[in-house]
Every structure is written in C-alpha cells, then in structure tokens.
Amino acid sequence: MDRLRCLQVFAEVARCGSFIKASVQLSLSKATVTKYVAALEAQMGAQLLKRNSKHLALTEAGTRVLRGGRELLDRYEALEGDVRNAVLLPRGEIRIGTPPSFGAYHLTRVLAHFTHHYPDIEVTMVYDDGRSDLVAEALDLSIRIAPALDDASYVAVPLLRVPQSLVASPRYLLAHGTPRTPQDLRQHNCLVHTVKSASGIWRFSGAESCEVKVRGSIRSNLGDSLKEAALMGAGISLHPHYMVADALEQGTLQAVLPEYRPDELDISVVFSTRRNMTHRVRHLIEFLKEWAQNPPGWASSAETVWRLPPAADDGAAPGLPDE
C-alpha cells in the first residue's frame, strides 16, 4: 500500500479527530480510511491511535509519526511542486483561513479568479477569527484583519489597510440621541467585537486622538452578528468599512462621529514557518499581493469614506477583482 497515502490519510484522521469526518474530507469510505491507518500501524509496528466509540487520541508513537509525517508530506509536495512548476501549472489543495465576512464578500471573489487561472488548484476556505493555530488546523495561509499582529511565530505579508466605520441605525439614534464626542459613547449601548476590541477600548484620531472604553449588552467574535444587532437598533457598532458600506449607502445604518477616524485595520496574509511552502501557495500569495496593488474602494483611508458610493464596475482585469 502507498506509504505516502497512508501518511496523508492518518494525518487527516488526526486533524479531524474522527475516521468518519476524515472519510468525508478525503472522499473515501470509512472502511478504506481504517484500512490505510491499519496499514500504517503495521508498517510502523506500533499502535498510533487510541480509539473507542466516543474518543480518538494519538498515542506517543502516533504523535511522533504525525510530526515527522507532516514534515515528510510537506517536503514531498514541495518537491512535486518544483518539478511540476517547471513544466506544468501548479496543482493540489490550499487551505486558507479567513474571517467569515471578508471571506464571503471579498476573498471568494479573488479566489474564484485565482482558480480560473490555476484550474488544477483546489482551494478550501476555513473559518478563522484570528486565533486559529495554522499548523494544528493544517492551514497553508490565513487572512488576518486586526490593528496589529502580535504572534511572532507567523510571517505576515501586508496586503491592505482598511478604515473602520462607527455606525448605528436611525431608530437607535432617534431613541438614544447622537454622540457628539467619543467620550459620549460611554453613555451608549456599544456592541463590542471580542477579537478586534477584546478590552472594549475603541481608539480614534481626527480632531484629536483619543480612546474610550465602551460596553454594551451584546459582545461577539462574529462581526455579522454585531452588524445585524445594529440594524435592529440594539446599539452602536464598529466595523471594517467593507461590512457596512452598502447599509450606509442605503441609509439603514448611519455614520456616528464621522469627524473622528477609528483605528484602521491591517489586512495581512500569514503563514507559519513550521510548514514548507509549496509553489501553489506562493502563487496564491503573489496573486493576493497583485490584487492588493489595485485596492478596492472600501480600502480608501479618506475621512469621508462612509459617504462614498460603491465603486462602479470599471472593467477591471479578470485576475484583479475590484471588490
């Protein structure tokens, strides 16, 4: 039996923590997955997994095999990529993490163009709120959107800076009044993103730089949930401009304190140095960098960005979507 395939199947079982989930991911039957793992255990002369009806765990030998096997698979894929890159288009799977809103509204468009150019590459998008372990989740890359990146174990490639917009529904502002200064936010129900503003501190520049600690009835690590709450009149929320541009244009949300600029966020693509980078991943990084050189309208840093209408379709090149 193919030893590399045995390692691939075993690594997927370990990642999923389940034979059934791994079989779905690999498009194999559970019996076939079990056969590959059993063959690997026979080759290694050791039990690699402890399993019962409810639990699956690596043995000490399994941990060693997984660590060395991942490195071996990465090296093999890099070798295969080197050879194929000389004569053919790159192929294989890329797993990329993304915040849900950015993934749904923007990254999907970019990846659709990317896979059009590289049809032999299969891209899997995985939810990542900025705290996923890239190695543990087997992510080749992840998009991180934050004021700054603190994790020194990853390499970050800056793509864009995106402004944020402070917003509320007309109904909320009519009922509770409109803040005139950032300090007024202390008297309002503020909807806090637990990843981008874990401490509940919102920072502003403009007429004067300041920061204010806010609180409110709803906190979430899902920006879409906070946006929906704001649309329902639950409070004031802070979002990357791309999430609320349409609502501002339609008037279902209104800009709050437009003369003040909340801190901008960096959009970066990050990867771990603990995994060998394949040619297909390098191609995607270069594609993302090229896209970012022609920034979409929502990436403008103008103070009045919330007043701008959505960018018109100006015939951008197929490889460089303008959204």
TrEMBL record:
BP GO annotations: DNA-templated transcription
Molecular function as annotated in GO: DNA-binding transcription factor activity; sequence-specific DNA binding
Gene3D superfamilies named in the record: 3.40.190.290, Winged helix-like DNA-binding domain superfamily/Winged helix DNA-binding domain
Keyword annotations from UniProtKB, A to Z: DNA-binding, Transcription, Transcription regulation
Superkingdom of this protein's organism: Bacteria
Residues covered by the HTH lysR-type domain: 1-59
PANTHER family recorded: HTH-TYPE TRANSCRIPTIONAL REGULATOR, TRANSCRIPTIONAL REGULATORY PROTEIN
Family designation: Belongs to the LysR transcriptional regulatory family.
Protein name from the UniProt record: HTH lysR-type domain-containing protein
Organism encoding this protein: Bordetella genomosp. 13
